[in-house]
Specification:
Elements lengths: L1 H8 L5 E5 L5 H9 L4 E4 L2 H10 L5 E4 L8 H4 L5 E5 L2 H13 L4 E7 L12 H9 L1 H5 L3 E8 L7 H22 L8 E3 L6 H6 L4 E4 L1 H4 L3
Length: 216
């Protein structure tokens, strides 16, 4: 399955985040041995346990909602936090990254789905954040793009519309706040059920769990 997905992603050079949540480290190692290096987890405790158990050249992405008091546990090693959904979280990531003398790449998570349970900014909130003087003071985070989850539905027209919305949020933010900053380039969208659609709509990173590891 890994090879098939990689072949599908190759023409657009879309990155694959293998979402290993709930699966044991041995399963991660299987994919690692096939060459996969980027893995995603949605819980801090599980992420830390896998980081400790597995090879250190794995690039770990946090993709789930983050409580501020847990950020310190992943700050020493996490490569990217895709689920930054508030100023409070971003500020604390900056503080903890600073303690370790590093900078952490972050994606701003946007609420594009119909469901109310999914976390994330709307465009106005994100613009307020990016315009604020406090944001400009941050030294240990780098905003590298946006992330979003589409509605869990069979309605592909709707899913496509939501991906387009995220793409246009990305384009707008880039034009307003990130001109001349090539590091702002990621649109993380697409999961097992909708990643091909996401790639068509400009995804640069897909987050795939079930297709690679089986049902959770
Ligand atoms: C679990 C999860 C995924 C992967 O979902 P699958 O449908 O198993 O591919 C992707 N993104 C986020 C944010 C997740 O929590």
């Amino acid at each position: 399955m890994l090879d098939t997905i990689l072949q599908q992603l190759a023409p657009t050079q879309t990155k694959l985040i293998a979402v290993s949540k709930t699966h044991p480290p041995e399963r991660v190692l299987e994919l690692y041995r096939q060459g996969q290096r980027i893995f995603g987890e949605n819980r801090v405790q599980e992420l830390v346990a896998k980081y400790e158990a597995l090879p250190k050249d794995i690039e770990w992405h946090l993709i789930g909602h983050l409580q501020t008091n847990k950020i310190k546990h992943i700050a020493p090693f996490v490569a990217c936090i895709q689920s930054v959904d508030s100023w409070k979280v971003l500020e604390e990531v900056d503080r903890q990254a600073g303690k370790h003398g590093r900078s952490i790449d972050c994606l701003l998570q946007f609420h594009i789905a119909e469901e109310e349970t999914k976390f994330g900014f709307d465009l106005a909130e994100a613009m307020d954040l990016l315009q604020s003087p406090a944001f400009r003071q941050l030294q240990n985070v780098r905003i590298t793009g946006v992330m979003g989850m589409a509605t869990f539905t069979e309605d592909l027209v709707q899913v496509r519309r939501e991906f387009r919305q995220l793409r246009s949020i990305f384009d707008g933010l880039r034009a307003l706040f990130f001109q001349n900053q090539p590091a702002f380039r990621e649109i993380s969208m697409g999961m097992s059920g909708d990643y091909l659609l996401a790639v068509e709509e400009g995804s640069t990173m897909v987050r795939i769990g079930t297709l690679l590891f089986g049902e959770r």
